[in-house]
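Teaching assistant's notes for section 4

Start the section by putting this record on the projector. Ask students to predict, before seeing the second block, whether Zinc ribbon domain-containing protein YjdM will look compact or extended. Collect guesses on the board.
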Amino acid sequence: MENLPNCPKCGSEYTYEDMDLYICPECAHEWSKDASLEEDEDKLIVKDANGAILEDGDDVTVIKDLKVKGSSSGIKVGTKVKGIRLVEGNDGHNIDCKVPGVGAIKLKQEFVKKA
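Reveal the predicted structure now:
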């Protein structure tokens, strides 16, 4: 079996070729065999709890009550966070944002959904 490249958008390993294109069955991304993938490889891919791909500037909603270290209050379920920024975080904390009532904080991607 041939060694086909992973999808540059979602990272899926189930790509297949169709004439002179590679196709990803999971996200339907198509790219040519000779296209340079340097700019796509450097891009960070972050998915929310439902599997939707998040981008800088998106609005998200918290799907679980979260405790905040050093604070008596936490982040309640349903809190809407506007204008997130994606960062390369440790332990899955890939979302940098300002939560109303809490301030600047990093969130894990599995505790938010795209609004």
